[in-house]
Amino acid sequence: MPDVYNWQLGREMTYRLDPGAGQWQFAAVFNTNRCIACQTCTMACKSTWTFSEGQEDMWWNNVETKPYGGYPHHWDLKTLDLIEQANPGGQTWQAGSAGPDAPYGVYEGATIFEAAEQGRQQAVGYLPTDEEWAAPNLHEDAPHSTKPLSEGVALPEHRTWFFYLQRLCNHCAYPACLSACPRNAIYKREEDGIVLIDQRRCRGYRKCVEQCPYKKSLYRPNTRTSEKCIGCYPRIEGSDPLTEGLPMETRCMAVCPGQILLQGLVPVTETGDWVEDLDNPLYHLIRESQVALPLYPQFGTQPNIYYIPPRWVPRPYLVQMFGPGVDEAIAGYERPTRRTQAVLQLFRVSQKIIFKFDVIEGEKVSEVNVNGQPLEVFDDTVIGYGRDGEEIVRTTVIEAHFERPAQYLNSI
Length: 412
What we know:
This protein has helices at residues 40-49, 75-86, 130-133, 176-180, 207-211, 233-236, 251-254, 281-288, 315-322, 326-334, 338-343; strands at residues 3-6, 11-14, 24-31, 62-66, 93-94, 106-107, 144-145, 160-161, 163-167, 186-188, 195-197, 217-220, 225-228, 261-267, 293-294, 305-308, 356-360, 364-370, 373-378, 381-385, 391-396. It has 412 residues and is of the alpha+beta class. The strands form nine sheets. A four-stranded mixed sheet has the order 14-3-16-15. It has a three-stranded antiparallel sheet with strand order 17-20-21. It has two domains: 3-339, Alpha-Beta Plaits, CATH 3.30.70.20; 340-396, no CATH class.
C-alpha cells in the first residue's frame, strides 16, 4: 500500500490506491446546535432518489439522535470496537503537536485501513444484519441521563442530553468503499470529489457496504447492486435551470428550515490537499477558525462533511466523535471572531453555492457576556460570490425584524 498524507490525522497512513488528481472537493458544514430533527432533509432525499422498489430501506440521508440512535443501529460503536480489537488501547491523540499541516494534532492509533493490515481485507468492517437496517428513527429523542431532570441543566454540560446528527455520504478523500471494491466500480470524480458507483460494473459483492465505516453504501436486493448518495451531482454541475448554470446546493441541504447547513466546493491540489483559500467560507470555518470538525477522523478516510459540535454534550463523548479539537471548536463558536460571525450568516441564505465571501464592516451594536467574557457584536455586511465571481447574496449579522401593526395582531 502507498503512503498518503491525511491532514486530519496529522500524519501519513496506508491506503490501497493513489488518490489521483483533483480540482475541487465537495464539502459541507453542519451546525448541530441548530438542528431540530424535522427530517425535512431526509424526506427530500428520499422523495428524489430512493423512492423505488428495492430502495425501501435506503436512506442516503438520515438524522440520528445521539448517543443511542444510528442507522444502521450502532454503526459507529461497532466500527470503533473493530479498531480497538486490532490495536488494543492504542487509539490516542497527541493534540499538543498541532500545526498548520496537523490542525488537530497527531493521531497515534490505527485507522480502519491499518487495523486490517494483517488480514485479507482492505479495511476492517462488517455487514449489518437485516434488523440493524430496520427502523431508521429508532431512539429518536431518547436522552442520556446521569442525574434527575429536576436538578436542572447548565452549560457547558447538561446532566440529561441528546443531540441530532445529520448524516450522508462523506465523499471522503480516501474512501473505504472505493478501496474495497474488487470490481473497481467505485470512483471519485476529479471535478468535484464526489464518490460514485458505476452500476454497469457493480456485481453486488457488498465489500463497499462492509468496509465503509459510516455505512453509507447500501445494497439493493432487486438489482443486486450497491447504491449510495451521489452528492446531487447534476445540481453541483449547475445543470438545474433555477441557478442559471451555477453550482447549486444538494436536495437535503436546500430544504433545511433550520438553516444548519453550508455546502460548497473547496479547491484542492493534485494530491488532494486543500489549497489555502481564506475567502472561501468552508475553508474559513474548517481550516482557519476550526469551528467545524470531521466525523470520526480516526477512521482515516478524511471525510468531507464537517460539524460544529453541540455545546451541551459531555466533552469526552464529543472528543471520541470529532477528535481533540472539540474544546477549541466550541469556544470559537460561542465567542466567534468578527469574521466568523459574518460567515455564520451565510448558512442557507442562497441555493447557489458560495465560493467566496467578503465582509463590509458596520457599527458596533452590542456587547454581550459569554461565559464571563465580553463579546462585541458588529452589524457587518457579508457578501457571497458564485463561481463566476458575481455577487449572489448580501446579508447582515443583525437580522431584520418586523413588528406586526396593531390592527393585525390577532388577524386569525
